[in-house]
Amino acid sequence: MKKTHLLSAVIMIMIATKAQAFVLQGEALFNRIGEQARVDWMITDAVDVPDTTGMTFNFAQGNTATYSGSKYFYYYQLENTTHSNITTLTVNVLPADITAAGFLVTENLDAAPFNHSVFGEDESANVQPPVNPLGVNVSGGAVPHVSWVFLMPSLNVSKFSTILFLASDKPPIVWDSIMDAGAPALSGLLPIPYTGAIVPEPFSLMLLGTSVFGLCVRKSKRG
Predict the structure, then answer these.
(1) Are 26 and 10 in contact (CB under 8 A)?
(2) 159-161/127-131 β-pairing
């Protein structure tokens, strides 16, 4: 299917010298007529970069062991810059391609140890504390997906979510995602675990290239 919307994300690539891990981060825009919401995101290939020791994990799929044994870690944080309440974020990913899914309880991607920071990003949705989802739906049905559900409360205007996560042995690809804040849904592009059945977009190929670069740097440093 031909994409009609543009990716709005700025990437910062850092090589963490101590752990020799790569970190990708950006801010994705989710759009509908007259409104935008944002999702800050971060990807790393090291379970201890950032160090999540002491944080509370809520798993909808997998557990501490499957999470810790994964090759790639995907972190997301919704920022409600719309005029409506947000109830879900859905990414199209095969459950078989993820080793763990869930959220960190009441954590902020912009704060230590994550310290998400991208030049030019919008931080106007800043009402504390971070909002935890009611639950996470992992579905392998006709349209495989993972959905983080915000009900009681929903993600209200100017608020931001806690850190949502996926873990996988698959490297990143950028793909369609949706955010429900009443009809019509907001749509955007987020990096998710790569599934070979879908064709990468040009930006996805760049992400894959940078992930290979990070792994090569890490390997050469260890050598």
Answers:
(1) yes
(2) parallel
Angstrom distance (rounded) from CA 106 to CA 37: 20
Which residues, at least 6 apart from 97, have a Cβ–Cβ distance to it below 8 Å? 168, 169, 170, 193, 194, 195
Displacement of CA 134 from its chain's centroid (Å): 18
The number of C-alpha atoms within 13 Å of 159 and in the hemisphere containing its C-beta is 20
pLDDT tens column, 173-203: 888 899 998 889 999 999 999 876 554 444 4
Classified as helix, coil or strand, 67 is helix
CB within 8 Å of 187: residues ≥ 6 apart:
5, 30, 31, 32, 176, 177, 178, 179
Query: For residues 43 and 25, is the Cβ–Cβ distance under 8 A?
Result: yes
The DSSP letter of residue 71 is S
**How many residues are there in the chain?**
223
Provide CB contacts within 8 A for 128, sequence distance 6+: none
